[in-house]
Amino acid sequence: MRLFGHKLPLSAQIGLVIIAVNFIAAVFAPLLAPYPEADIVGSAWGLPSADHWFGMDNLGRDVFSRILYGARMTIGISVFITLMAFFLGVVLGFAAAILGRGVDIVLSFIANLILSMPTLIFALVVLSVMGTNIPTLILTVGLLYSVPVFRLARAVAMNIAVLEYVEAAKLRGEGLWWIIRREILPNALPPLVAELGLRFCFTFLLIAALSFLGLGIQPPNADWGSMVKETGQMIALRPVALYPAAAIALLTIGVNLVVDWLLAIHSRGQGEEV
Questions:
Q1: 3-class SS of residue 139
Q2: 3-state percent breakdown (helix, strand, coil) of the chain, nearest 5
Q3: What span, in angstroms and rounded, lies between the C-alpha atoms of 38 and 227?
Q4: How sure is the predictor about 50, in pLDDT bands with cuts at 50, 70 and 90?
Q5: Under 8 Å CB-to-CB from 88, ≥6 apart: which residues?
Q6: Do the Cβ atoms of 117 and 143 come closer than 8 Å?
Q7: Would you state the torsion angle of the CA atoms of residues 238, 240, 242, 247, taken in this order, to the nearest 10 degrees?
Q8: Cα 184 from Cα 71, distance rounded (Å)
């Protein structure tokens, strides 16, 4: 099996299968789930059966259905936050690298100021003050994770901007936008794509952690982090808490397997250039 002109190793194939299964679950949750996510369809802590594959939670809701709906909520919000963080980080990072020392100093100072605060604690403080609605969650986490992307994009763009072909484009009289679009961005894509996968994992795990702490996605919306919290009290007697935790772990592993392959391709490409 090949992707982007490169042969896929077994680990990357496994990662892609895990990602694809989660994507299908997130997109088609209403069609695949046997019950609505918030409906009470049995007794609390009911055992797994033919009608309820993963059993019941603390309120008598079908755990399998809530995991499918939780995929839609958790993964969907994580993808949106990751894309927003990347847009902000890449645009500002390229601006800091190309628009001159003054812009670089101001943007780098703001980035270092945000980085000086622990991510989880900063998110907890903001969400405690501003409320736990989804728009606030998206804006807070998106802003926090745009900073590491900014630092990476700035470093990569600075390294590329001093290369000979960029200088040649400047001497030809090419505009700034043309240079960014045709010279810098294509050569910056490999590390940025790898960072995209890693940043999704960090975002995904942070959303789950905030939901576990009660400041993320709120009931009755299904979310894997809050499901671990709701069912954790019965972990010694029922396996029900293991299912959402396993879903979180599997998706994280799958994305990391694909990211490792992308990083290996990038490293191999750099080695061939040298």
A1: helix
A2: 75, 5, 25
A3: 12
A4: confident
A5: 142, 143, 146, 149, 150
A6: no
A7: 170
A8: 36
What percent of the chain is predicted at pLDDT more than 70?
94
Measured between alpha carbons, how far is 210 from 206 in angstroms, rounded to an integer?
6
| CATH value at residue 160 | 1.10.3720.10
Residue 170 has, within 13 A of its CA and on its CB side, a CA count of 11
Q: Length of the chain in residues, anyone?
A: 274
**226 and 63 in contact (C-beta within 8 Å)?**
no
Rg of the chain taking only CA atoms, in angstroms: 22
Task: Report whether 213 contacts 124 (CB < 8 A).
Answer: yes
Angle at 19 between CA 267 and CA 137, to 5 degrees: 95
**113/5: higher pLDDT:** 113
C-alpha to C-alpha distance for 91 and 70, rounded to whole angstroms: 31
Burial-class residue 80 by CB neighbours within 10 Å (0-12, 13-18, 19+).
middle
- Tally of domains within the chain: 1
The owner of tokens 């609505």 is: 36
Phi and psi angles of residue 62, each rounded to the nearest 5 degrees, phi first: -70, 120
Residue 115's domain comprises 2-273
The bridge status of strand 2-3 relative to strand 6-7 is: antiparallel
Question: What's the confidence (pLDDT) of residue 119?
Answer: 85
